[in-house]
Write a structure and sequence with these properties.
elongated
């Protein structure tokens, strides 16, 4: 007997949602080795909108190597402080 299928766990959505909700300062490391520091305003399946120095930047997720919270919120714990996205 096959039971109801569980929805897939999406670590990125939960992580980004909590950072956005808490208005946490984050450091986004790009695969080009550039760092962007700001606050997540919006995100979807393909991109993140980061507010940096009063302006919004659209960053495609395939260009991100890691995201780390810089705030003192519960999401800054060692277990959830960084999410690495594999290059496409």
């Amino acid at each position: 007997m096959i039971g109801p299928s569980k929805p897939p766990i999406n670590v990125q959505d939960g992580f980004f949602y909590q950072l956005r909700k808490d208005n946490t300062l984050v450091e986004v490391m790009l695969i080009s080795e550039k760092k962007r520091v700001g606050r997540i305003r919006r995100f979807d399946k393909y991109a993140v909108v980061l507010e940096v120095e009063g302006r919004e930047e659209l960053i495609y997720k395939h260009a991100i190597s890691s995201v780390a919270s810089l705030g003192g919120t519960p999401t800054a714990s060692p277990a959830m402080g960084t999410v690495r996205t594999p290059p496409v």
